[in-house]
Amino acid sequence: MMNLAEAVKLDFAYLETFTTRNETAWGSLFLNENEPNYYDANHAHISEECPDPVLLADEVIRFYQSRNIIPRFYLYQLEKQQALITELKTRGFQYEEFVSPVQLWTGQIQAVPDRHATIEKVTLENFNEVLQIQGSIKEFGGKETIEKIFRKQFSHPSFTYYLLRCDGKACAAACMFEEKNQARVESVATLEAFRGKGLIGDLLFFIQKEAVRKHIDKLWVLPINERVEKVYSRYGFETIAVMKTGHAFLGGKSIKEIQG
After folding, report:
1. Model pTM?
2. Which domain holds residue 82?
3. How many domains are there within the chain?
4. One domain for residues 82 and 155
5. What sections of the chain are H helices per DSSP?
6. Do 136 and 221 belong together in one domain?
7. Rounded mean pLDDT of the chain?
8. What is the C-alpha to C-alpha distance for residues 136 and 150, in angstroms, rounded to an integer?
9. pLDDT digits 0-9 by tens, 190-240
10. Is the domain of 15 the same as that of 115?
11. Does residue 72 sit in the same domain as residue 62?
12. Rounded to the nearest 10 degrees, how much is the dihedral formed by the CA atoms of 125, 128, 133, 138?
């Protein structure tokens, strides 16, 4: 449980690089009025049981609608959220659930075959090549929003982006988000023409070595689905927990629609 608590704490630190967290008696309100359509930047985070779902729903809806942002909730420990889920559905919220694996690197570096690939740190010189890769991944959401977030993360000291080239051509990228002695692999993306070639393994191998060099105690990854979870498992990441998450939203696309 301590490991999972650390993963949640790291997730909050990650979110706070592009949004503002407002603590409440019942959870957190995340807000970035400059990115109203970016779900992770604008949502209520609820993990404990709410004693008054009606009052909570009123507060969250009023908070976001007063800023012309679609109200949405990310719900955790769903067994405690049934009354709130029922209340939100009666108010017209759509609702979906996800199984979200949480993986922690075992510390073992898995060697990868030589694929004539090179990996370099992202700088201003190769910035646009990585921007093209990140913006092409529909699973990440809208291109315009993703490009804005990438630009902001690139200039943030907690993020280091890496670009992988095959025979000189830019084809994949990933980043490592660092917070004190912990880190997380983020924004792993491969151009469609280069998928299925094992390039993710090359990037993970490189980032793992960087984590060792930087004396990172724990390296995390949050796969978006079980298929991706299996990929990371081949490269030394062990699933330590599986969280069931609820997403309630009063408009716009579901996360499943965005991810395809």
Report:
1. 0.88
2. 2-101+243-259
3. 2
4. no
5. 2-15, 53-65, 82-90, 127-135, 143-154, 199-213, 226-233, 255-259
6. yes
7. 90
8. 12
9. 998 998 888 989 999 999 999 999 999 999 999 988 888 999 999 999 999
10. no
11. yes
12. 150
